[in-house]
Amino acid sequence: MHLIVGEDGLARPPWAATDPLLRDYYDREWGMPVRDETGLFERLSLEAFQSGLSWATILRKRPAFREAFAGFEADAVARFDDDDVERLLADAAIVRNRRKIDATIGNARATVALREQGGLAELIWSFQPECTPTPETLADVPTVSAESLALSKALKRHSFAHVGPTTMHALMEAVGVIDTHLVGSHRRGSSGVWTADGRRAVDGRAAERQPA
Length: 212
Prior knowledge:
single chain, mainly alpha, Endonuclease III, domain 1, 9 helices, DNA-3-methyladenine glycosylase I, DNA-3mA_glycosylase, DNA_glycosylase, Adenine_glyco
């Protein structure tokens, strides 16, 4: 499938072309660089919860997830105990999956521990490749890469869970480590990290800025 040009004249992939929530997420956030611990911990957690579900489901529940998980502040979530687990399992506004809840709490503790070795952001961004895909159709977009496999293994060595290579590839797409916007999309090359033809922009590190 190729791009769809909306009423605003902007080209988007089919998944972001109709649902207003997904369109806004695509236009403003997906693929923009995230380099802070809280932002990355949140996205890592939500990608894990998304496994087996649609991203639209997770996105609609995102405000509830933020409330339930203390704004995804790693120090706060790391202090969650059995009572918190029971509270989360009773919260119909989020995804009530014990394994994913336990993994998120464990990942918060792993995130705190990782600060002694540079931190979560440094680890994730260390797997930025030299070039990024240049897909023309959704069929051209990879779902895993050598870098996502290596990131998965590295996180598991640091006691993270629910961080398989496919999930980590989705994370890398979402936070700008790679750019898999379709060629011709109005978002292609807009992050400041990558050029439209798949090369690193300048030194590969965009200035911190809010999405347009």
